[in-house]
């Protein structure tokens, strides 16, 4: 498949990848507090930014390359992101296998990082504004975030100090402003993409920094003892399986999800600020909900929901992919 040349397309594509990376970093590191962001050093933040940029580039490549048109394909891409995040950044994918796999990478990181990050990125760039349904979803996410950041750091397996509510809100607001500035810039400089989402596919030479960055993260984790041989084998098998599922889900009809943002519409600051407010302000309510310990109902219900999502989504999507392939073969044979 040839890729049409367009002046400024290369820079525009990387600006869009950078904007998605910023949103993913805010969702995974700040909102869900999975690695205690208050204790990161400047070099660690720099390294994290590089890893999230590589993950964002990979996600957009898969969305464009397999012409993802619906929520099933989006779930697979977000799930692959969650798997890689849990293995390479949070190092939580295989600590208590298989429970840790479905609870953190396929649950928390896939839904709270991958799905939420892609959803926010698409909503901001599609020019459709903040509709009532979107506002309700964001408020619900903000409430869940408040519950999570209040009780999750106190779990014995984490050993994180409990963040004060003002600290968590200020850090989230600062992250949101930085991500918003990058997305605003990308939306105004991305005219080079035009209406062809295929320009978000990585060129052969662009795979070198993307794959190299992820490989370096893997090697660092292995050297630190956070990634064992079994972890690497399991990571490769699961990632390969998800890409195979995405292949069978590839869209031939309908409008690709990325067509909503190619060309991207300029981000309106009121919409961005409203999204931030709907995420951050309900968190104060969730943080203040009654509960005497991490074993209380609020966190237990949220953990159960995330784990249930992690258990169910991949088998469900796999079944749907199999049915689609069967129907496709039946029609071709008929």
Architecture blueprint of SSEs:
Elements: H1 9-31, H2 42-65, H3 71-88, H4 99-125, H5 132-151, H6 165-189, H7 207-223, H8 229-249, H9 269-288, H10 297-333
* Head-to-tail CA distance between termini: 28 Å
Q: What form results from the Cα inertia axes?
A: globular
**Roughly what percent helix?**
55-70%
Radius of gyration: 19 Å
How would a textbook summarize the main sheet? none
Strand content: under 5%
What does this structure look like?
The protein has helices spanning 9-31, 42-65, 71-88, 99-125, 132-151, 165-189, 207-223, 229-249, 269-288, 297-333. By secondary structure, the chain is mostly helical. It has one domain (9-333). Helix 4 crosses helix 10 (297-333). The longest helix is centred in the last third of the chain and has 37 residues, at 297-333. The chain is globular, with a radius of gyration of 19 Å. 43% of the residues are buried. Residues 1-7 have low confidence and may be disordered.
Q: What would you say about this model in short?
A:
With 334 residues, the chain is mainly α. It has helices at residues 9-31, 42-65, 71-88, 99-125, 132-151, 165-189, 207-223, 229-249, 269-288, 297-333. The chain has 10 helices and no strands.
Short descriptors:
mainly alpha; 334 residues; 69% helix
